[in-house]
């Protein structure tokens, strides 16, 4: 630690306008009042009678392994600044970077500064940055280097003494999974995983949690030998998105949708995560993993669980996770995977007016790779609510545009008392949860076309976050990092959910591995023909996005 004057006074706010602190202290009471006021001022639609206590993190250190990666630069470091800027981090909050670089604190602070400037959601404020940067430290070392971890333990002790962080540490493993065992073992060896009475230790694990059921179980054995389950936070960043959490509000805070949210009214559900980007510089990670392991096993199956589950008795982690588990357990694959799955990989094509190369021409990809960049799967849920209602999941890279949505498509009206011509172009009613971009919800339904005839066609009713709430939503990582620091687990999948998701995917991966290379689709289009054929066999089409 090479910082001068790094001591923090307990009363010093990390954000000079909004004081932060533990909700239980009197400094915190002031912080809470100030935060509430600041939030209310920022959002004129907030009800001024709303006196709920904002959730503020207590004193702690976040140790980040993998500070030089893309995730840290684009998401984690900016999210930490955004939390500080919103007054949600405590005065002594400290951030320790650990990596194999010959760096000093100052170098890591500079990296963080650049990341914040480029990617933070909230405006840059010098006074917030100044205070945050006083708590930024760097510990150089390799994961195999005992000495480096001993130095880390010493550094954390010193930070506790100078910055009042009370022995509360979060360890964020933003590193390739092959290093998890090493890091976790080092945390055990140095006693950093054991929380002395009155403090906490938590470990945050980035996906992928293994690459199949077996490896996920192995990973869990390693982690659970060191940390109790209540201290393990598995990140699925989709659960941190406002629009994803809003699925619960939509379903369970209203009486409008739930009565028709079942096989009596729903024809099918389409869950789409389309990206226009290719694999970028992530060949090392992506090749051999593929689109299904990358996002279906986690993000899309979590969306399916939220859409399909029964109402939890509360939003506490036990009941929420239990309901998600129940629905994941009820998921069934159709018997013939050649008819109910499709995969593809992008070939050369066009994106945003520019020519782009195909997957096998990307840097770092072998020409004989059989990794898919597109995957579509038809699933069923064997329970009373959903029997017979297919859930279609699709994802792909280098598709027409970036869009993630959940579309609940309803059955046609049982009888149409119109002439056939009048309803010729009428589609099926649909409720579309627009996860991103253009966050909101659309309801599609039939309406009379003005005129003398009784012609009916589809129109849309729209809810847009931008219009209704007038402030940008926090980034997923802001929410999830705060939850880790507070120790609030509902938005983190339990190991059982992870294992159930692999159980669903493993037979599909096994089937695909026995096939040849995936079908090619031109970059910038909507995926392979086999995905359209999958839908056509059921007399359906993918939604046009
Ligand atoms: C990650 C995947 O989990 O999600 C990436 O590993 C993908 O391949 C990313 O690009 C997309 O996240 P978002 O939030 O932009 O939809």
How is the topology of this model organized?
Blueprint: H1 26-42, E1 61-65, H2 70-85, E2 94-99, H3 105-119, H4 126-133, E3 136-140, H5 146-163, E4 169-173, H6 180-189, E5 201-206, H7 213-224, E6 232-235, H8 242-252, E7 266-274, H9 283-286, H10 290-308, H11 317-329, E8 331-332, H12 337-340, E9 341-347, E10 349-351, E11 354-356, E12 374-381, E13 391-396, E14 403-410, E15 430-436, E16 440-448, E17 456-464, H13 465-469, H14 476-486, H15 495-513, E18 519-522, H16 529-537
Parallel strand pairs: 1-2, 1-4, 2-3, 4-5, 5-6, 7-13, 9-18
Antiparallel strand pairs: 7-14, 8-12, 9-12, 10-11, 12-13, 14-15, 15-16, 16-17
Helix pairs in contact: 2-3, 2-14, 7-15, 10-11, 10-15, 11-15
The structure holds 6-O-phosphono-beta-D-glucopyranose (BG6).
6-O-phosphono-beta-D-glucopyranose (BG6) binds at residues 275, 294-295, 404.
Pathway: Carbohydrate degradation; pentose phosphate pathway; D-ribulose 5-phosphate from D-glucose 6-phosphate (oxidative stage): step 1/3
Region (Disordered): 1-26
GO molecular function, one term: NADP binding
């Amino acid at each position: 630690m090479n910082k001068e004057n790094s001591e923090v006074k307990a009363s010093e706010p990390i954000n000079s306008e909004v004081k932060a602190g533990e909700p239980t202290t009197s400094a915190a009471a002031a912080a809470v009042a100030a935060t509430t006021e600041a939030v209310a001022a920022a959002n004129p639609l907030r009800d001024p009678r709303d006196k709920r206590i904002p959730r503020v993190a207590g004193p702690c250190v976040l140790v980040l392994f993998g500070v030089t990666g893309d995730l840290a630069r684009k998401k984690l470091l900016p999210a930490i600044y955004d939390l500080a800027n919103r007054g949600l981090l405590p005065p002594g909050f400290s951030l320790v970077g650990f990596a194999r670089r010959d760096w000093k604190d100052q170098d890591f602070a500079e990296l963080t500064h650049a990341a914040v400037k480029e990617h933070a959601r909230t405006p840059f404020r010098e006074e917030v940055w100044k205070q945050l940067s006083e708590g930024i430290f760097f510990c150089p070392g390799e994961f195999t280097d005992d000495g480096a971890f001993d130095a880390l333990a010493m550094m954390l002790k010193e930070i506790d003494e100078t910055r009042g962080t009370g022995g509360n540490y979060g360890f964020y493993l933003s590193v390739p999974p092959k290093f998890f065992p090493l890091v976790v073992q080092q945390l055990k060896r140095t006693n950093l995983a054991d929380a002395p009475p009155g403090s906490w230790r938590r470990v945050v694990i980035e996906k992928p949690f293994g690459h199949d059921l077996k490896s996920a179980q192995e990973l869990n054995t390693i982690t659970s030998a060191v940390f109790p389950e209540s201290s393990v936070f598995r990140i699925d960043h989709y659960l941190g998105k406002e629009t994803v959490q809003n699925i619960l509000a939509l379903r369970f805070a209203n009486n409008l949708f739930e009565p028709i949210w079942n096989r009596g009214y729903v024809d099918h559900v389409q869950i789409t995560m389309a990206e226009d980007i290719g694999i970028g510089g992530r060949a090392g990670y992506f090749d051999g993993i593929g689109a299904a392991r990358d996002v279906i096993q986690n993000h899309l199956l979590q969306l399916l669980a939220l859409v399909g589950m029964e109402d939890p008795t509360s939003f506490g982690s036990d009941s929420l996770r239990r309901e998600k588990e129940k629905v994941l357990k009820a998921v069934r694959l159709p018997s013939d995977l050649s008819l109910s799955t499709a995969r593809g990989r992008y070939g050369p094509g066009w994106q945003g007016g520019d020519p782009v190369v195909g997957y096998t021409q990307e840097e770092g990809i072998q020409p004989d790779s059989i990794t898919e960049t597109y995957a579509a799967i038809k699933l069923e849920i064997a329970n009373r609510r959903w029997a017979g209602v297919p859930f279609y999941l699709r994802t792909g890279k280098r598709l027409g545009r970036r869009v993630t949505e959940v579309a609940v498509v309803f059955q046609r009206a049982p009888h149409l008392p119109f002439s056939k011509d009048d309803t010729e172009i009428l589609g099926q009613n649909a409720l579309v949860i627009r996860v991103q971009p253009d966050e909101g919800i659309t309801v599609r339904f039939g309406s009379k076309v003005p005129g003398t005839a009784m012609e009916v066609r589809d129109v849309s009713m729209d809810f847009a976050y931008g219009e209704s709430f007038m402030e940008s939503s926090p980034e997923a990582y802001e929410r999830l990092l705060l939850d880790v620091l507070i120790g609030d687990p509902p938005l983190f999948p339990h190991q059982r959910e992870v294992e159930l998701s692999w159980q669903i995917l493993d037979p599909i991966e096994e089937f695909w591995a026995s096939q040849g290379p995936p079908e090619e689709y031109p970059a910038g289009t909507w995926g392979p023909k086999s995905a359209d054929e999958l839908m056509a066999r059921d007399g359906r089409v993918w939604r046009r996005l």
